C-alpha cells in the first residue's frame, strides 16, 4: 500500500469516527467529550536514560508566536513523561508539525412534521429523513523524536480530530493531550482517545 492510500484511509476513518460527534455539535447537542484518533510508531524500550531534548523549528516556524504557544504545551506533555528540556547538547531532537484540512461530512437528519398528536420527529411518524451536508475541519498534529547522535527516529505520534470550528488553536490542546495519553503506546497502532471538554 502506498503512502497516499494509507493517508486516505486514515482520513476516511477519522471522518467516519467523527460524524456522530460533529452531528451532535452542529445540531446543538452537548458532546460528551473531544475524540481524537492517535497513531503511534516507536522503538522505545523504557530503558532510555538520557531524555534531554530540544525542540527544532523549521524556518517557517522560527519566530512564530503560534508555534511558540504550541511548543509550550508540548513541553508540558514531554516533561510530565520524564523528558528534560535543555538549551544545549541534547540527546534528543523533537519536531512539531500541524495543520488543518477542510472537508465535507454528510449525515442523515429526521425531517420534522406536525402530526395528529403534536410536533414529532420522523421516521416513526412517516416523515422520513433528509441529508445534511456540512463543512468540517480535520485538525492534525504530529510530534517526532530522534536521537541527535545518529539521527535515528525513535518516536512518532499523530493525533487527528474533527471539528466544526476552523480554528486550530482551539483543538491543539486536545491534540497534544490525546497524543501523550498512553505514552509511549503500542508500536504501529491507532486508538481512539476521548477527553472531557475543558471549561
TrEMBL record:
Pfam families: DUF4136. Residues 48-185 form the DUF4136 domain. Gene3D superfamilies: 3.30.160.670. PROSITE patterns: PROKAR_LIPOPROTEIN (PS51257). Keywords: Signal. Residues 1-30 form the signal peptide. Transmembrane segments: none annotated. InterPro entries: DUF4136 (IPR025411). It comes from the Bacteria. This is DUF4136 domain-containing protein. It comes from Sapientia aquatica.
Amino acid at each position: 500500500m502506498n503512502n497516499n492510500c494509507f493517508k486516505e484511509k486514515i482520513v476516511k476513518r477519522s471522518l467516519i469516527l467523527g460524524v456522530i460527534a460533529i452531528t451532535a455539535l452542529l445540531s446543538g447537542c452537548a458532546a460528551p467529550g473531544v475524540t481524537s484518533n492517535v497513531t503511534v510508531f516507536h522503538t522505545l524500550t523504557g530503558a532510555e536514560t538520557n531524555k534531554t531534548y530540544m525542540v527544532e523549528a523549521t524556518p517557517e516556524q522560527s519566530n512564530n508566536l503560534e508555534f511558540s504557544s504550541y511548543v509550550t504545551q508540548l513541553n508540558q506533555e514531554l516533561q510530565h513523561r520524564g523528558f528534560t528540556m535543555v538549551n544545549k547538547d541534547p540527546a534528543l531532537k523533537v519536531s512539531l508539525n500541524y495543520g488543518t484540512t477542510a472537508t465535507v461530512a454528510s449525515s442523515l437528519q429526521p425531517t420534522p412534521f406536525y402530526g395528529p398528536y403534536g410536533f414529532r420527529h420522523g421516521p416513526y411518524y412517516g416523515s422520513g429523513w433528509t441529508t445534511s451536508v456540512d463543512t468540517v475541519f480535520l485538525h492534525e498534529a504530529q510530534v517526532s523524536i530522534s536521537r541527535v547522535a545518529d539521527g535515528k527516529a525513535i518516536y512518532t505520534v499523530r493525533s487527528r480530530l474533527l471539528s466544526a470550528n476552523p480554528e486550530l488553536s482551539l483543538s491543539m490542546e486536545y491534540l497534544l493531550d490525546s497524543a501523550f495519553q498512553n505514552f509511549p503506546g503500542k508500536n504501529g497502532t491507532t486508538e481512539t482517545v476521548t477527553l472531557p471538554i475543558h471549561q
